[in-house]
């Protein structure tokens, strides 16, 4: 599958999957802001998601025309506000996808793509805001330069693979596992790092490959520990965190927020999967049995 198609597919999938899990990150919101205030906050996304220097509540309040006390009434701090803005964008995007039910698969796809294009057109601040939150193009360049080649030879002859994640990273793990299947012909399965030790671990023999995706969030330490435990058991374990001690580390730049830390892992993962597919003698742009549209009766 060509890279552009892979990215479009993933954006749609991540919006749906991460939208459910992201709501856990804004649990400290004191009250749900009214629609008018939510719309104003989304309109100021580029300022709110700015990474350096981070905006003050005074600046945000002045931009959207409310008192600073109003923001503190709904949010305990900038992290809560940031989580709300990101989650609300994801929720609204997911609503567009959910509305595309009925008709043929091709028609649903057309409605979904048209809806997302319209959504981005109506929210032109969203893309630059997300780039700003990730540190702009610099962070993306770091992600593109992240070298995961150390894992290529390990997986060159692999038949099976576990891809682990937790929280928002679990959505990414599912997408990465799918791409291992489609482009590399590897039987890859995605599991929560909290669940893999309850049954699936029985399959882990010496040399069994494991890829653990960890964002910079409260689950990072536990994901690193599971990767280390599997490495101690003999697995060929790789992890996207500096907290691991026995698993091999795969570099990923920090994006500045747990939701974005999960998303940015897609970039080096795609490049790695493309390289691995070619190493295995396959064409990642033309999977042998992939059909873009499937119909069920």
Protein model, in words:
This protein is α/β, with parallel strands linked by helices and 297 residues long. Helices cover 54% and strands 7% of the residues. It is built from 14 helices and five strands. It has a five-stranded parallel β-sheet with strand order 2-1-3-4-5, with helices on both faces. α1 packs across α6 (78-98) and α1 packs antiparallel against α11 (168-184). The longest helix is centred in the first third of the chain and has 21 residues, at 78-98. Mean pLDDT is 81; it is low at 1-29.
Supply the number of helical segments: 14
Low-confidence stretches: 1-29
Q: Sum up the overall morphology in one term.
A: globular
Q: Could you say how many structural domains there are in total?
A: 2
Run of helices and strands: HHHHHHHHHHEHEEHEEHH
Distance between the termini: 26 Å
Strand content: 5-15%
């Amino acid at each position: 599958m060509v890279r552009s198609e892979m990215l479009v597919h993933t954006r749609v999938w991540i919006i749906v999957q991460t939208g459910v899990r992201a709501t856990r990150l804004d649990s400290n919101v004191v009250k749900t802001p009214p629609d008018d205030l939510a719309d104003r906050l989304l309109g100021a996304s580029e300022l709110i998601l700015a990474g350096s220097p981070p905006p003050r509540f005074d600046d945000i309040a002045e931009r959207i025309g409310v008192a600073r006390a109003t923001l503190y009434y709904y949010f305990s701090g900038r992290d809560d506000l940031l989580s709300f803005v990101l989650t609300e964008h994801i929720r609204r995007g997911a609503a567009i996808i959910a509305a595309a039910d009925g008709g043929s698969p091709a028609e649903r796809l057309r409605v979904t793509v048209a809806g997302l294009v319209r959504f981005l057109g109506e929210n032109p601040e969203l893309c630059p805001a997300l780039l700003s939150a990730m540190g702009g193009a610099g962070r993306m360049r770091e992600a593109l330069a992240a070298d995961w080649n150390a894992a290529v030879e390990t997986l060159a002859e692999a038949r099976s693979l576990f891809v682990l994640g937790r929280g928002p990273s679990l959505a990414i793990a599912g997408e990465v596992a799918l791409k291992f299947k489609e482009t590399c012909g590897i039987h890859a399965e995605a599991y929560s790092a909290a669940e893999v030790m309850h049954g699936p671990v029985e399959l882990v023999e010496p040399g069994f490959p494991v890829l653990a995706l960890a964002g910079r969030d409260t689950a990072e330490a536990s994901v690193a520990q599971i990767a280390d435990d599997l490495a101690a058991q003999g697995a060929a374990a790789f992890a996207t965190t500096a907290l691991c001690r026995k698993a091999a580390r795969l570099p990923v730049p920090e994006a500045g927020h747990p939701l974005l830390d999960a998303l940015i892992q897609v970039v080096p993962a795609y490049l790695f999967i493309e390289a691995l597919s070619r190493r295995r003698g396959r064409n990642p742009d033309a999977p042998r049995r992939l059909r873009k549209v499937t119909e069920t009766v």
